[in-house]
Amino acid sequence: MRHWILAVLIGLATAFGGTAMAQQSINFEQFDPIYQPLEEAFRNGDHKAAQRVLKGMERQHGKTADFEFLSGIVTLLQMNDAGSLRLPFLARRMRNHWLQAVEYDPNHELAHFSLVQYLANAPGIVGGSLDDALKHRDRLHELDSEHRFMADIVIAMVQEDEAAELAAWDALFASQPENAQIRVNYAAQKINQEQYERALEQLQAALTLVAASDDEADTLVLTQLQYQWGKLAAVSGHELDQGADFLADLLAEDRLPEGMSQGWVQFRLAQVEQHRQNNDRAQQLFSAAEQFASDDENLRQALTEQGRCQRTC
Description:
Blueprint: H1 2-15, H2 39-43, H3 47-61, H4 65-79, H5 87-104, H6 109-121, H7 130-142, H8 148-158, H9 162-175, H10 180-192, H11 196-210, H12 216-236, H13 240-252, H14 262-275, H15 279-290, H16 297-306
Helix pairs in contact: 1-6, 3-4, 4-5, 5-6, 6-7, 6-8, 7-8, 8-9, 10-11, 10-12, 11-12, 12-13, 12-14, 13-14, 14-15
């Protein structure tokens, strides 16, 4: 069951403009100001604190479409650390919150998109239904919502229609030509799918958008972009010099994508140096990355697969 929950998380994060978890990316300016106290709990991924805040808001303000939508996100947070037996119950609760949100407000775009994500990815035993997902996708088109493109992408991916998926991405890029973040998000997805040429094309476009900017938000996107470029080099063997330069810059300037340890940058740079046959340098970097592996299961697994993780990891 975890795999489709991850698909929902990634899709929400992409739609909300972030590369981290969806709860870290939600812009609370789009909600009634009464929900502002939830922001810190969401940013910290603290579902217990968020539940306490929501209970107080329910007593004071009652339930609204935003309340139900945010309740669904809180339930999604709970699913991150729930046991397998509890997951189906939480999944249905999350879906029901979002269904209630569109009952309160048929124009609630985020609730419709969340339902597209859920219904398209979830198994039928917990209420998944592609036909129902299409209805919410169509509603987003009726509303001329900015989320309609991501909804099209979700549906195309579930249907394994690569041409439709690429067309939807192109429509999204055309609708937001100055948005470098969505291009970096796309590149990250395509790197994971080993579609390196497509990833590189959007990394290059994003770099053009952010390179000359002094905006703090663009600086954060640039950090993500440089890491993804380095990751592409590490896993594909292409763009080695540029990838190495970007990763080295991140380490030298102590800039890291949000939620990422220095060990991951060292690990990727070590892989690049292996491709460049700088084996001594690669081994030094693998050893440096191991210092972070005890607190990072994914990094520990990556090092183990690389054959570098010692028993101290």
